[in-house]
Fold this protein.
Amino acid sequence: MQPPDQTRVPSGADTLAAVAAATLAALRAKSPRVHCITNTVAQAFTANVLLAAGAVPAMTASPEEVGAFVAMSGALLVNLGTLDRERRAAIDTAIETAIARNVPWVLDPVFIDRVPFRAELAHDLIARGNRALRLNAAEFRAMSGTEPTSRNVAQYAREHGIVVALTGATDVVADGKRQASVANGHPWMAKVTAVGCANSALVAACVAVEPDPWKAAVSAVLIGGIAGEIAARHARGPGTFSAAYVDAIHALDADAIASHARIQ
Amino acid sequence: MQPPDQTRVPSGADTLAAVAAATLAALRAKSPRVHCITNTVAQAFTANVLLAAGAVPAMTASPEEVGAFVAMSGALLVNLGTLDRERRAAIDTAIETAIARNVPWVLDPVFIDRVPFRAELAHDLIARGNRALRLNAAEFRAMSGTEPTSRNVAQYAREHGIVVALTGATDVVADGKRQASVANGHPWMAKVTAVGCANSALVAACVAVEPDPWKAAVSAVLIGGIAGEIAARHARGPGTFSAAYVDAIHALDADAIASHARIQ
Amino acid sequence: MQPPDQTRVPSGADTLAAVAAATLAALRAKSPRVHCITNTVAQAFTANVLLAAGAVPAMTASPEEVGAFVAMSGALLVNLGTLDRERRAAIDTAIETAIARNVPWVLDPVFIDRVPFRAELAHDLIARGNRALRLNAAEFRAMSGTEPTSRNVAQYAREHGIVVALTGATDVVADGKRQASVANGHPWMAKVTAVGCANSALVAACVAVEPDPWKAAVSAVLIGGIAGEIAARHARGPGTFSAAYVDAIHALDADAIASHARIQ
């Protein structure tokens, strides 16, 4: 018999680690199709991260084809990078299809801090009802007009009725009612292109299998952050880190998530 | 003197392994230019696989430029992924140039099982006389309307007068008269994006140096499958596998092909 | 006390190694934004090389957005690969913005030896006053109509008032008055796609922090060549070399530059 003082009462953090493990297991069991309209810089890495997690990516960004792809997908990612004319048209059709077919979609407003035009588009898209928004501090400032504090993230999430996943040294995931801070990750994640973009795709993949988008987003940032820590041990720098990151996501299991998770 | 029972009569499989080794040697000796109209997800990996095999890739998909590139290439790959408007126009010009200049071309009908529009295009393209078709089981079903059995693959090849390379756990390469089954490969090949696309480019490269397109296609799937097996030994997961795959193609030689080949 | 015969008088080569070390240190200290209009094959690798060196890449090639990106960048790279219609329009706007805002820009005339149309464009662009031109032997022939000798490179640089960085087994960097030959590098650099393209981006990054474009270009080819030599020691072939190359740029320091540099 276990003495009471060794009994571990499941805390919120334990619960979220278990949620992430269950979401990852669901990804592998269900292999959801995730359609990604994403920038050409991030496509290959994003596809490899999704495959490693168990999802099946497709990346067509042609207005004529994107509807057919989205209609048979479990989730849609809209990433605003390398935003050419066809991508803009494809985004419109893709979101229309997602809404009509009840396919959840996630927005990654890449570099909206750099181009006013792109920030306007992001605002318009948010109004069409995405499930989650993943961005960094600079993009949050451009999106909300406020500093990226926990309070402001929660308020923005509440006002827009979406989940916000703000990633950085510590990730904040809020839906207005609930909030989690994830301290996992590694500095090399900021030295490899497309890690943030791939993480947004992972949010989309998790949203495809976990109906609660806040739990899905927490799962995604936790999976990404822990994979980053494990990858760093097998890497000599950001180049080998990139490959090791994909390996780590592929090998990740409930034990590794439970033992690494640093959630508040 | 060798006693008769140890004499090894060259079987068809041995011959094909030797053909693949000779094709790879020809790739390295002749460094053919291979023009690839391929999807943006697969471009970098495909280019690296071609370079590792000895070929010289070019990837322009602009209608204004593609003709000049194809005219000076040893082979053309047409891959239907990320099929935007410029790619569609480029495909038309590229095939026209290939036919006029007698440049052999290979079709990879990516995801035609997902979009009816793309399946129609693939049918139209096949009618223009490509040398080989590389696809997976789902794409074969969409292309032929039949199950991907050896018999159906052979029949489709015969009817259309082309080589069909169907890849999967076991690869089937048929031209209607001849047929080979290649059991080489590794499950991680399905967990890395663009391995199939790169294999189609390898078929094109082999077609550039081996006049018999069936032998060329068998060579390509054999080189790819064996490289996958070797790569898996040097990898920790699909991320490091991807780099090890390129290494393995670069290091592949006749001995490794002969000792690994599992052909029926 | 050191006897006089052991005193090392700083030679030109030592000075250039020190210049490269200082340029790399400046990249890390200032993290300049480098906007790259580059081909879709090279984008991810180029972005990772720039990040490893300390720069911050952006890659949008949309005419509507590129001006805003260039205006806030420390340098612009124009690479003519995968030259579609939007890229051509974006190049025009990007250079116009670069000139108006005094943002230095670098040209990489990829494959101008293959398409007359592209060679014409390269000539037109040169006339608009770029800071440096990075190219290989075949591209130099197409650009200048002369053989890629040191003398011809120097003359072309003088006539056009630009820095020319011709890369190959030995790199030649000339501005008409000064000339350096860099013998660093590794054969695998020619077996990995986008190494040359990424090196051009590195020239742009160095031009963003070093006002003398000749010193900037010498720094970039030296950093690239030395990283290639170091990477080869950690690689099994061109696949693992690619990741090791990014690691090596990330880890490069003044000591490694000084001990490896082979400059004449």
User: Anything to note?
Assistant: DSSP finds eleven helices and eight strands in chain C.
